[in-house]
Amino acid sequence: MKAEQNQLITRIGPGTPCGAVLRHYWQPVALVGEFNPELDPHMALRPVKAVRILGQNLVLFRNQQGQYGLLDRDCPHRGADLSFGRNEGDGLRCPFHGWKFDATGQCIETPAEPAGSTLCKRVKQRNYPLLERSGVLFGWFGPEGSVPPPFPALDCFTAPDSHTFAFKGLWNCNWLQAFEVGIDPAHPSYLHRFFSDESLEESYGRQFRGASVGTVDGQLWPMTKIMREFGQPEISFEPMPYGMRLTALRPMTEALTHVRVTNAIFPHTFVIPLSETMTITQMHVPVDDTHTYWYSIFTSFADAVDRETMRRQRLNAVNLPNYIPKSGKHNQWGFNPWEQNSRTYLGMGEDDINVHDQWAVESMGAIQDRTREHLGSSDKVIMANRRELLKAIETVQAGGTPPGVADPAIAAQRVGPETVDGIAPAGEWTAWWQQAVQAKRQGAPWNASLKLSDETHEASI
Ligand code: FES
Ligand SMILES: [Fe+2]
């Protein structure tokens, strides 16, 4: 790839072509949990957060009615930082000269001005549309005054709160390389390889520790065993209204094939199976060109999610309140050569595979130099996604809309998507995985999206 192309697809600040593409989509801004005083005691006193997203500095606050306001952070008076503002319940007051703003950004007081001044009526700070879904606050950063697109009806947003759990973490790298690890069906056989399997009973909430759907000679197989033993997946992808459906086949015997179906939702979300009944929807939102927050929404198609367990597992790896990983370049991501020698392929722990991906994406450097890489046929999805991104940039530059947004008909098709990790009869894997998906949906206590999902199949096959 040429240096200019790499620049084009990675830089996302205001005024950049790729930034203009990303500004067509709702973006995760914060977890609702970031305002929970049990997780961040400051929030009991002062529910205000500094937020940086797409290279823009913002302030997010909650008023006493429970409404959130997301405003540009520089005070429209003389530019002081509003994230240090006084939250007075009905607005946020700049401590420099006391100008006060409500959740819509309207200035409601300018106390140093002479009595009778109407200056505040003419001052409005830019605010950004916000909505809350599945424990995440999403903002929209399109041109001021334009109408945000409809929100997609993905499973992670249609499942009831009891069946979802959201978490996040910071990676010190560009958003695109962060996303590209998630749409790379070859890497789990290597990066996440464990030399031995654990009891399936201990697998709750842990990626690859559960069993694949189906059996071999009546035995359940942990995903770790399949990933370890079959390292040359046959990878294919098909275009979908939301992006791409990815299929990785690992032929196991004459009679059996392992099928893993995952999804790339344009521009930066993947959906993968965590277990037979749970999926992970992970978004990669740029903080700026060299930092990215991943947001994961875990969605259960069976029992309510055990949030306490899920949260405890993940809080081990980050420091609050900003979800900064405890491992990173500063401590070699916890690298242990003895572990690499005897227990895992990478040597960075067996409890949380997220740090494996973090190493992969951060060790490339803040923005991967794609002029130096050599792609193989197992990188075909990465290549297809970059082509799609370049095309979307051209489309937006020509005044058009990028894939999967703005048209309500298309937004309504952005449902599901389907995922599976299972062992299928070799000749019938296509029908097999679709049946597995149907069974999973029928078993879900919140079966609302089944019909829409069927329509997606029809539209795409
Ligand atoms: S800079 Fe904020 S009130 Fe003056
Ligand atoms: Fe991974």
Summary keywords:
4-stranded antiparallel sheet; 8-stranded antiparallel sheet; 13 helices; 26% strand; single chain; binds fe (ii) ion; disordered C terminus
Give the quaternary arrangement of the chains: single chain
- By secondary-structure content and strand pairing, the structural class works out as alpha+beta
What's the end-to-end separation, in Å? 32 Å
Helix content: 10-25%
Total number of beta strands: 22
* Shape by Cα distribution: globular
How would you sum up the major sheet? 8 strands, antiparallel
Number of helices: 13
What are the distinct ligands in this entry? FE2/S2 (inorganic) cluster, fe (ii) ion
Q: Any idea what the radius of gyration is? A: 23 Å
Low-confidence stretches: 450-461
Average pLDDT level: 93
| Beta-strand residue fraction | 25-35%
Give a topology summary.
Elements: H1 3-10, H2 17-22, E1 27-31, H3 42-45, E2 48-53, E3 56-62, E4 68-72, E5 86-87, E6 92-93, E7 100-101, E8 107-109, E9 130-133, E10 136-139, H4 155-158, E11 164-171, H5 175-182, E12 211-216, E13 219-222, H6 223-229, E14 234-240, E15 243-251, E16 256-265, E17 269-273, E18 278-288, E19 291-300, H7 307-315, E20 318-319, E21 324-325, H8 337-342, H9 354-362, H10 380-397, H11 408-413, E22 420-425, H12 429-443, H13 450-460
Antiparallel strand pairs: 1-10, 2-3, 3-4, 5-6, 6-7, 7-8, 9-10, 11-19, 12-13, 14-15, 15-16, 16-17, 16-22, 17-18, 18-19, 20-21
Helix pairs in contact: 5-9
The structure holds FE2/S2 (inorganic) cluster and fe (ii) ion.
Residues 181, 187-188, 191-192, 357 line the site of fe (ii) ion.
